[in-house]
Structure formats: C-alpha cells, structure tokens
Design goal:
6 strands, disordered N terminus
Length: about 170
Amino acid sequence: MLYILTKHKKLNLKKLTYLFLLPLFFTISCSEDHTNLDEQLFHTESSTITNDILKLINKHREINGLHTLKRNATADKLAENHNKYMIANDVVNHDHFNERASALRKDEQAKGVGENVAWGYKDAQQVVNAWLDSPGHKANIEGDFTNSGLSAMKDDNGTYYFTHLFYKN
C-alpha cells in the first residue's frame, strides 16, 4: 500500500496566513434570497476547477506514458469531507487518511491509496504545478493508480482547499 505524506506536521493556517495568502481583490456578497443561486455557482465553480485539475493531471500522465485516471463518486465524497474537516479545523493535513483509505478498500476494492492536499492556490494550474514540484505529491500523480476523487472547496474567506485521492483497483 502507498501512503504518501500521511505523517506530516499539521499546519496552523492562522500563523501562515500572512506568508501565503494572496491579497483578496474583491469579494462577492449576496442576500439570503440568492442562497440557491450561490450554491449552484459554488458547485459549478468547484466542479470546473476539479475537472480542470483532473484534465491537467491526466495530460501529465499521458505525456509520461501512464494511463489516465477515472473519477469516482465515492472518492470525490471522501475528498469533499476531508476538505470540510480541514476548513472547520483551520489546518491543512492528512488526518484520518487511514479511514479514507479503508473506505476505498472496502467500497471500491482499492489495492493502493494515495492522497494530495493543498491550500491557498487560486486555480487548477497553480495547484497542479505545486504538486508536480513536490516529490511526494508528484509520486502520487505518477503512481500506479487507476481512479481518483477530487474536491476543491473555499472557506469563508474565499481560500481554496484541495484534496485529491488516488487509488488502484
């Protein structure tokens, strides 16, 4: 089984905010009457960025002679739940990775599982570039995996959190 970066120290985002956050140039605010529209825009934006991430990763894999990854709803939900956890706890980490890996082994017959997380990148290209510049993250991207689950979620400040699960079945 492949476990990459599961024992890294937790990052306290409050301490890192001044070092890593880009200035926020604008904010969007909507009245309560637009809640459903806000949710639709969020899901569309989130779907777009995760689709773009997978396209970029699959393009990289193809260039390197690797098969493309297929998106999986179970893995997507696990990634989404981990983003919610990171946002709620104001940390970027791999906490409870073993539980996500176990769920994929049980529900999807996964034989190997890896995970990449990130925070603060504004688009798909930036986060994929950062992962490719990191040996552990790149190992997952280029690993012997067949499927993936992705989530990109913004916190209340509009900062993206990313979780990308990889597995082989």
